[in-house]
Each structure stands twice: as C-alpha cells, then as structure tokens.
Design a protein that fits this description.
Radius of gyration: 24 Å
Strand content: 15-25%
Order of helices and strands: EHHHEEEEEEEEEHHEHHHEEEH
Bound molecules: zinc ion
Mean pLDDT: 88
Number of helices: 9
Shape: globular
Strand order of the largest sheet: 2-6-7-1-5-4-3
Number of strands: 14
Low-confidence stretches: 284-303
Helix content: 40-55%
Structural class: alpha+beta
C-alpha cells in the first residue's frame, strides 16, 4: 500500500532562506521551460518535449553553479515533469474539445513545492548528523533540516517533497509497502451524503458537521480577500495582506484536513461497507445546472467563496476516506448520485416537490417525512448495495 506522511519542518533561519531560494529557483526553471516551449511553438511550430528540456539541465546547471547548480538534478527534473504534465493535461483538454487554459507562468507565491523523486538522491530522510533522538531530513543545498515527527513512518520512503504554506514549511514522504491494518468486521453498512452544513450524513441518521471553526475561518478569509482587492498594487499594505490571506488559506486547509481525518476514521471504524456519491458525476451535474441550491442551516446564504471553501472539502474527505478504508480492509462503493436527493427512500417516488427545503424531505406520494440528507444517504446506500450485488452475481 502507498501512503503519505506529512510533517512540520523546523528549519533554522539560514535554512528558511535556503528553502525559499530553492523554491524560487525551481519556479524560475519552471517558467523558463514554459517560455521555451511557447516560443518554440510560436516561432517554429515545434513542440518541445520533456526529454529535450531534461537534457538541457546539465548546461543550465553548469552555467549557473551558484544558482541552479546548487540544487538536486532530480528535483529539477521533477519540476520539468510537472510542466510536462500541465502540457499533457492541456492537450488532453484540447482533444476532448473543452476550452483549455494554456499552462501559465507561476508568479511568486504560486509555486510552493519541490519534489525529490527518490529518497537518497539529493535528499535523505531520517539523516542524523548530530542528535540521536531528533529526526532530520537532508536536502541538497539546504542541509539537515529538523523535522517535527509527530507519528512514526511506515513502509519504504519513495519520494520526498517540501512545501510552503504561509510561513510554515512541511515535508511529505510518499511511502510504499505500508502494511495494512485491518479492523475487525462490524457487519454494518452505511450510505453517506456529503453536504455543506454537515460534511457527512449517514443513512443511520448520524451527522458530522463541518466544524464551526472552519466556517468561521472561511468567513475571515472572505473578509481578508475583499480587503486585499482594495489595496493598492505594489504597496506595503498589500504585501502584508497577501501574507494574511495565505495564512488563512493554510489554516482552512489544516482545519479541513483535521475534520476529514476524524470523520473518516469514525466511519471506517463503524462500517464494513460505505457507499458514497461519485463526485466526478456530482461535480459535473452541479456545475452544469449552475445553481446553488439553498445552502444549509449553519452556513445560510453565505458568499459563494465561503460555500466553495466548504464544498471543496468533499474531494479531500473522500481521498482520506479511501486511504483509511483500504488500510482497514473496508469497502467503498461510489454510486451515481442522480435523483438520490429527490427520491423517496420509503416508496421510491421521485419528484422535485419531494424536497421541501434544503433540510426537509416530504414524499408527495406516501407522506414519508425525513431529514433530506438522511433520505439521500439511504438512497445512496441502496444504490451501493445494488451495485455490489450486481458485481457479485457477475
Ligand atoms: Zn414515498
């Protein structure tokens, strides 16, 4: 099993400067490679590929020993591959006829991570120069950076990446062969509905609320962004406000992750099988209809930004849930969410009028009344069990 582990770094002041320089040089490399591809195509109609750009790295490093030459060759290749991936995605979108956005130059503050694709190559996890009990990661050009290792690492460390979130630095290890830790069977199954007011509602009627403090931070972020829009470009105040917005973004991310981990853990402990909406389909239908259904209770009628901040948690949550489910030996089933919110879980009657408000469901055929999210979760569970039965019969 593959799993990642993320830790806070405790760099010295000198290391912070080196980390920032490392990011900056990788950003410039990315932009230079992007420029190269653009001009080659504009002037000569030539597509430049990753292989050619990677081959040029040697010269770039040789010409700039105190700049680009300081960093790991492999991490620079990883950055070029990242650009390559952006281009592949771009051409993929062109092919499928969608309006693609051309890969963009990364401005300052828009390039926040560097990856070392192989432990031992320009980086070394758990390298201990002078302290027997502390954990360090060695990064080429930066040195031994102390790690706040709050939990053990399992499996084989494959890749190491460093990212900046506001004023904090983190290291993320991607590990292979992490042993699974199956949980005892509970014989219980559940469907879950993902919402805004409640992140998760189960078919048993349990609700995990989007934490109140997440909504509060989302509010503050919205305010901070409006303030930012009023600041004059290039001013000292604007620069400070940019930092404030970045810090709040980072806080939202941390709170969301924390809430998602707790909710996912509770679910995999309680249920052997969990059915959920297939988000790829959900997102498509939501953006196509273009309507924001009346938002829920706690976060009533908040700005689009606030809502999108809370919404964006679903993908994160499902990713975490799938990792935990795999580790615990639980089964997840993704179902098509069409009509799950307007179908009566008791009699199957499907009508728009069944849904009175965001929170209330009342069937116009049989009179069944329930919390709308619970009703949807039951439909999702039923659809999931039907899929599983069909798969077993096949
Ligand atoms: Zn009914």
């Amino acid at each position: 099993m593959r799993r990642s582990f993320k830790f806070l770094l405790r760099p010295t002041a000198r290391q912070v400067a080196a980390l920032a320089a490392c990011l900056e040089d990788h950003r410039q490399l990315y932009n230079a490679a992007l420029e190269h591809r653009r001009t080659a195509y504009a002037k000569a109609g030539v597509s430049v590929r990753y292989g050619e750009q990677s081959a040029e790295l040697k010269h770039i490093r040789g010409d700039d020993p105190d700049g680009q030459g300081r960093w790991s060759f492999s991490s620079q290749q990883a950055t070029l591959r990242r650009l390559d991936k952006a281009f592949r995605a771009f051409f993929e979108r062109v092919k499928t006829g969608r309006t693609p956005g051309y890969p963009r130059f990364k401005g300052r503050g828009r390039f926040d991570s560097v990856e070392w694709p192989k432990d031992g190559d320009g980086c070394r996890w758990d390298s201990q120069p002078d302290h027997p009990t502390a954990t360090y990661v060695r990064l080429q050009g930066i040195g031994h950076v102390r790690v706040h290792q709050h939990r053990p690492v399992q499996g084989q460390v494959k890749t190491i990446s460093v990212n900046r979130e506001g004023s904090r630095w983190y290291v993320t290890l991607s590990c292979d062969e992490v042993p699974a830790a199956p949980l005892p069977a509970t014989a219980a199954v559940a469907g879950i509905d993902l919402g805004v007011a409640s992140l998760v509602t189960t078919s048993d009627g349990a609700q995990v609320a989007n934490p109140r403090h997440l909504a509060a931070t989302a509010d503050r972020l919205g305010d901070a962004q409006r303030d930012l829009a009023r600041k004059k470009r290039g001013s000292q105040r604007r620069r400070k406000q940019v930092a404030r917005v970045a810090a709040l973004h980072a806080k939202v991310r941390r709170q969301r992750l924390d809430g998602a981990h707790k909710a996912a853990l509770a679910l995999v402990r309680a249920y052997d099988v969990i059915a959920h909406e297939d988000l790829r389909i959900t997102n498509m239908t939501r953006s196509a209809s273009g309507t924001v259904e009346q938002p829920g209770r706690n976060v009533a009628q908040k700005s689009g930004l606030n809502r999108s901040i809370l919404d964006a948690g679903w993908g994160v949550f499902l990713t975490i849930l799938s990792h935990k489910a795999e580790s615990a030996g639980r089964k997840l089933i993704a179902v098509n969410p069409a009509h799950t919110s307007r179908t009566c879980a008791r009699c199957g009657h499907c009508a728009k009028d069944n849904r009175l408000t965001q929170a209330e469901f009342a069937c116009t055929a049989c009179g069944h009344a329930a919390h709308a999210d619970v009703n949807a979760a039951i439909n999702i569970l039923r659809a999931g069990l039907a899929l599983r039965q069909a798969a077993q019969a096949a």
